Amino acid sequence: MTLEQLRIFVAVAEREHVTRAATELNLTQSAASAAIAALEHRHAVKLFDRVGRRIALTDAGRLFLGEARAILARSAAGEQVLADLAGLKRGRLSIAASQTIGNYWLPRRLVAFRARHPGIETPLVIGNTETVAAAIHDGLADIGLVEGEIDDPHLAQEVVAVDEMTIVVAPGHPWAGRGRVDAAALSESAWVLREPGSGTRQLLETVLAGAGRALAEIEIVLELPANEAVRAAVEAGSGASLMSRLVVSNALQSGALVEVAAEIPSRRFIMLRHKERYSGRAAQAFRALLAEEPAATGRAQPQG
């Protein structure tokens, strides 16, 4: 049974005339008759009574007519869904993002995306860089956005923005009035850090390594799983921390935190996708939106 056979059957049933139905469908009379005969033969059931030159539905034909109409309606609805998906009128784009991106950088971009494509759902899961990369690798999200470097040959990576980093302390900390702190002196303070696997922690390890130091050489008084918790602990005087300016800008303006002058490199916000999985229209539209944003080194740059 094909959709074309069903369309012919419904047309003939509604007109009670094979030739008229064939004309409406732009078919020959013989093609329409053959389609009805094929249905009846395949299922060993008589759908029409032929009385002279006219035809009429049998009881079986009347029962089948409702089902045939329902199938054609579902088919039309399915075609409309595909058309909507192709036109970005409907769909779903699942996103996984690390904390700084998900809580501070991404929301404004999601608002802009939903304004353009209100029919596209954008569920968001927030974790650290490691968990986001794992979600993309395992197919649990369509797009990932992370702050840390990822070493996974299955993942394509694009730089979408640059994030400024800074060392912050409470106003009473010894570094608050200090002119500059070099990387070799970072072990002089206690530290509050994010958990292993976070991009922020990874950057501090890189800074220390550049000065010939290791993370094990500094005193870590607290390891906390959220940027807000780290910031609050630093404000309370627990020690120093390396954080994104996105996270601490309000605290710096209010005086709750003080920025420490130090040579800290910026870091990249990176979009992840799986190389072997299909990138749908919604994902392509989201990547295009991010690529519109001007940045010195933050425009989307394919890396494999």
Annotate the secondary structure layout.
Elements: H1 3-15, H2 18-24, H3 29-43, E1 48-51, E2 54-57, H4 59-86, E3 91-92, E4 95-98, H5 99-116, E5 120-121, E6 124-127, H6 129-137, E7 143-146, E8 155-163, E9 165-169, E10 190-194, H7 199-210, E11 219-224, H8 227-235, E12 241-244, H9 245-254, E13 258-260, E14 267-274, H10 281-291, E15 301-302
Parallel strand pairs: 3-5, 4-6, 4-7, 10-11
Antiparallel strand pairs: 1-2, 7-14, 8-14, 8-15, 9-12, 9-13
What does this structure look like?
It is rod-shaped, with a radius of gyration of 32 Å. Helix 1 crosses helix 3 (29-43), helix 1 (3-15) packs across helix 4 and helix 2 (18-24) crosses helix 3 (29-43). It is of the alpha/beta class and 304 residues long. The chain folds into three domains: 3-86, Orthogonal Bundle (Arc Repressor Mutant, subunit A), CATH 1.10.10; 93-154 and 273-302, 3-Layer(aba) Sandwich (D-Maltodextrin-Binding Protein, domain 2), CATH 3.40.190; 165-260, Periplasmic binding protein-like II (D-Maltodextrin-Binding Protein, domain 2), CATH 3.40.190.10. It is 43% helix and 22% strand.
